[in-house]
């Protein structure tokens, strides 16, 4: 318990001195302290806190992406704030309030543009990653003529961003090759109420989960002219659904080998989909409505957390045998999980226990614990080099 | 005094539809406040300004009948992500939450 505090003091000293030793950012990350508008800069070699950065506004449902040099994090807050955090100095390097209500964002493949997806007024706003100067503003007016909330944003190769329109059921691709003249390609009638989406790590498949009907809208990004196809027509609530107390997150996608692991919706199950045929291969029963199903980077395990009231447990599924090998209780209200780059450890935020816990993924035992005020998202810099994160 | 006011308001809110209403215990109210902020907050925003779910600020809710809101909380809104909470919340809990959202109890 005294180690993190000592480290904070130490980091403060080191950062303050002009002779601070050089260090890289490869083992750094951010933990969002949701209620206090603060993030902690952490390092995952010794599991310690390096700095605490206040002043980020309303961070309920905050997300972060990294600059390609992994020096800066861009944090998207609920109040529409976009904050650039310097991971080495533990300070805010820039901040703009860009809309009333945002949900997440993405950084372009070349690292030059940051796009923010907004609920109200619905649309995306694009900023220069260096200066945070506004570059483009693309309202999401659906085919029905009304403004729509934007969800499921991800970066595509080229200066392009893909996202879905929740209210009007569309997928848009904004091409900012010329930021002054963004070109938007629209796919309409994709299905009712897309609530979140994922892109596979190779950047080829974009899958949007539908809340208003059963099924997933899929776009093959290598064959855009084929348009949106529908897969897994039974994915969804089906008959006698259980209440969904928190929307599953698809963005924490789990692609393990040729399988995509998805949280079911309205059922206490995780679905295994064959990525070569896009058909269901298996279902694994779990302890509640899954929120995140995340694959360890080597694809050998999938870790699952749950919606209230089952959010005090986390289950570990062995991918080859498709069985739950362990149910752990790391703390109260587990909101998020993040693996280290090579997956030997996983960090979990326990919101109602005011702590972050670290597990060894081989022994499945806890190895460290850090105090944190109502922690939610955890984001490691290894995301800097992955499409869709 | 606050307690008296809150009981009065809940009484009013529910008088029409449900005759006998018990205010949740202080321990339960503490849980409910936390739940509104965190668990409802995941869709409605921690500050209730809206998200995937509609805003739940007092001025937005004032337009709708209180009994209707209690019903929405317990039964959900089919066809939308608003789930039915009746397996977790009692009618008294829901009524207290509505009064809390309307700013009538703390």
Fold topology:
The complex is a heterodimer of chains A (389) and B (106).
Chain A: H1 2-16, E1 28-33, E2 38-43, E3 48-53, E4 63-66, E5 72-76, E6 81-86, E7 91-97, E8 101-107, E9 113-120, E10 123-128, E11 134-139, E12 150-156, E13 160-165, E14 170-175, E15 183-187, E16 194-199, E17 205-210, E18 216-220, E19 228-231, E20 254-256, E21 259-263, E22 269-274, E23 279-285, E24 290-295, E25 301-306, E26 314-318, E27 323-328, E28 334-339, E29 345-350, E30 355-360, E31 366-371, E32 375-380
Antiparallel strand pairs in A: 1-2, 1-32, 2-3, 4-5, 5-6, 6-7, 8-9, 9-10, 10-11, 12-13, 13-14, 14-15, 16-17, 17-18, 18-19, 20-21, 21-22, 22-23, 24-25, 25-26, 26-27, 28-29, 29-30, 30-31
Chain B: H1 2-15, H2 26-44, H3 58-61, H4 66-75, H5 91-101
Helix pairs in contact in B: 1-5, 2-5, 4-5
State the CATH architecture of chain B: Orthogonal Bundle
Give the CATH class of chain B.
Answer: Mainly Alpha
According to DSSP, the number of beta strands of chain B is 0
- CATH architecture identity of one domain in chain A: 7 Propeller
Largest sheet of chain A: 4 strands, antiparallel
Count of helices of chain B? 5
The percent of residues in helical segments of chain A reads under 10%
Q: What would the CATH topology of chain B be?
A: Cytochrome Bc1 Complex, Chain D, domain 2
Look at the structure and name the CATH superfamily of one domain in chain A. YVTN repeat-like/Quinoprotein amine dehydrogenase
Low-confidence stretches of chain B: 1-20
Identify the most extensive interface between protein chains.
A-B, 29 and 23 residues
Q: Which CATH C-level class of one domain in chain A is it?
A: Mainly Beta
């Amino acid at each position: 318990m005294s180690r993190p505090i000592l480290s904070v003091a130490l980091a403060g000293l080191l950062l303050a001195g002009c002779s601070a030793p050089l260090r890289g950012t490869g083992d750094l990350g951010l933990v969002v302290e949701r209620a206090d508008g603060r993030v902690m800069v952490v390092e995952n070699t010794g599991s310690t806190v390096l700095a605490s950065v206040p002043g980020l506004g309303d961070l309920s449902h905050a997300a972060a992406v990294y600059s390609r040099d992994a020096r800066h994090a861009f944090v998207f807050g609920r109040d529409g704030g976009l904050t650039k955090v310097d991971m080495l100095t533990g300070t805010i390097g820039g901040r703009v309030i860009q809309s009333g209500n945002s949900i997440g964002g993405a950084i372009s493949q070349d690292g030059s543009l940051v796009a923010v997806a907004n609920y109200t007024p619905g649309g995306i706003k694009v900023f220069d990653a260096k200066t945070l100067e506004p570059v483009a503003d693309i309202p999401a007016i659906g085919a029905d003529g009304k403004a729509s909330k934007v969800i499921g944003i991800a970066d595509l190769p080229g200066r392009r961003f893909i996202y879905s329109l929740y209210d009007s059921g569309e997928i848009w691709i904004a091409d900012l090759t010329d930021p002054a003249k963004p070109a938007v390609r629209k796919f309409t009638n994709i299905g009712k109420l897309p609530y979140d989406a994922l892109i596979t790590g190779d950047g080829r498949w974009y899958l949007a989960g539908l809340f208003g009907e059963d099924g997933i809208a899929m776009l093959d990004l290598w064959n855009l002219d084929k348009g949106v196809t529908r897969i897994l027509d039974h994915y969804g609530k089906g008959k006698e659904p259980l209440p969904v107390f928190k929307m599953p997150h698809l963005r924490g996608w789990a692609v393990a080998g040729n399988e995509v692991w998805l949280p079911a919706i309205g059922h206490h199950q995780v679905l295994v989909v064959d990525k070569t045929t896009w058909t269901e291969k298996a279902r694994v029963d779990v302890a509640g409505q899954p929120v995140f199903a995340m694959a360890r980077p080597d694809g050998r395990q999938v870790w699952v957390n749950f919606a209230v009231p089952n959010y005090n447990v986390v289950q570990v599924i062995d991918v080859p045998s498709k069985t739950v090998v362990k149910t752990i209780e790391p703390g109260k209200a587990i909101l998020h999980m993040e693996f280290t780059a090579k997956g030997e450890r996983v960090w979990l935020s326990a919101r109602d226990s005011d702590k972050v816990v670290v597990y060894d993924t081989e022994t499945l035992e806890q190895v460290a614990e850090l105090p944190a005020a109502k922690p939610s998202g955890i984001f490691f810099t290894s995301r800097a080099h992955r499409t869709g994160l | 005094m606050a307690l008296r006011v809150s009981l009065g308001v809940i009484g009013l809110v529910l008088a029409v539809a449900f005759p006998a209403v018990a205010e949740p215990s202080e321990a339960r109210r503490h849980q409910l406040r936390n739940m509104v902020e965190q668990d409802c907050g995941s869709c409605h925003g921690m500050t209730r300004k809206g998200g995937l779910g509609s805003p739940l600020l007092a001025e937005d809710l004032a337009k709708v009948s209180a009994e209707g809101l209690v019903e929405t909380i317990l039964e959900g809104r089919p066809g939308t992500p608003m789930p039915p909470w009746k397996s977790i919340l009692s009618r008294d809990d829901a009524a207290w939450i509505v009064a809390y959202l309307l700013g009538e109890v703390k």
